[in-house]
Write a structure and sequence with these properties.
It holds the Pfam family SLT_2. One of its GO terms (molecular function) is peptidoglycan lytic transglycosylase activity. This is Murein transglycosylase. It comes from Alsobacter soli. The chain has 264 residues and is an all-alpha fold. The chain has a domain of 122 residues: Lysozyme, CATH 1.10.530.10. It is built from 13 helices and two strands. The chain has a two-stranded antiparallel sheet with strand order 1-2.
Length: 264
């Protein structure tokens, strides 16, 4: 894996203008099967045009397909019901700690630069990196726009993913994503698996497939969610809330804190 010790920080916050709340999205009707997806796309595209989404993004939206694999993954997240020990075993916690300690040493200058800027030490960043993509080796091969569009159409979490879809379309119009961009099952992108709206709000440095950009963006996310330099990040400590903001699953949160403490 190629890591970059130097990079230019360019915030994406200015790109949020087209991302609104799901309640303003209009009347496109959600569904629970593939049957209504094409009609939903037509309705959503009309609403998106009315909100200023450009032709490039509309064309990309119309090229999406109903992602059956995404729906299956969304319904099958059983590992979040495991105990902490079971979850760590299933997700390779010991291997993440071992590789993470090595990466912390070999790329100490990069981590020191990130910590100086954002106040986040290496451990939580490395834990998230290892947990999300096995240090970049498992970033997914699902079409990102199809995944997000499918989940925006699906009734289970339509409001959340409608916001994500508008963010993704904004990123397409800005040339940051394309109709062929690939990532994980729910539309996560890059080394630490940012959702489209989080790319707009917290992405720095450019391409999040570049490790330095992804880790700096992750630190920026944590700082924006209350991370305080020098404070603890175990359950009950000040910075644990920022880890909770990263992922809603309690066992995931505790796993990140545990792995990070072993690395730090």
């Amino acid at each position: 894996m190629r890591l970059h010790a130097r990079w230019t920080m360019v915030p994406f916050a200015a790109l949020v203008s087209l991302v609104g709340t799901a309640t303003a999205a209009g009347a496109a009707q959600c569904g629970n099967s593939a049957g209504g997806f094409e009609a939903w796309k037509q309705e959503f595209a009309s609403e998106a045009r009315a909100r200023g989404v450009g032709p490039t993004a509309i064309s990309a939206l119309m090229s999406t397909h109903y992602a059956t694999a995404t729906i299956a993954a969304d319904r099958g997240q059983h590992s979040f019901r495991l105990s902490l020990d079971q979850f760590l075993a299933k997700r390779g916690g010991a291997a993440i700690v071992s590789r993470g300690r090595s990466l912390k040493q070999s790329h100490s200058a990069m981590f020191a630069s990130i910590e100086q800027r954002y106040g986040v030490p290496p451990g939580p960043l490395i834990a998230i990196w290892g947990m999300e993509t096995a240090f970049g080796s498992q970033r997914g091969n699902q079409n990102t726009l199809s995944a997000v569009a499918t989940l925006a159409y699906d009734c289970r979490r339509s409001a959340f993913f409608t916001d994500q879809l508008y963010a993704a379309l904004t990123l397409v119009d800005r040339g940051i994503l394309t109709a062929s961009t690939r990532g994980s099952m729910h539309g996560e992108i890059g080394q630490t698996q940012f959702m489209p709206k989080n790319i707009l709000n917290y992405g720095v440095g450019g391409n999040l497939d570049v490790t330095a950009n992804a880790l700096a963006s992750t630190a920026n996310f944590l700082k924006a969610h209350g991370w305080r330099a020098g404070a603890g990040y175990q359950p009950g400590e000040a910075n644990f809330a920022a880890i909770q903001a990263w992922n809603a699953a309690s066992v995931y949160q505790r796993a990140i804190a545990h792995i990070a403490s072993q690395i730090d």
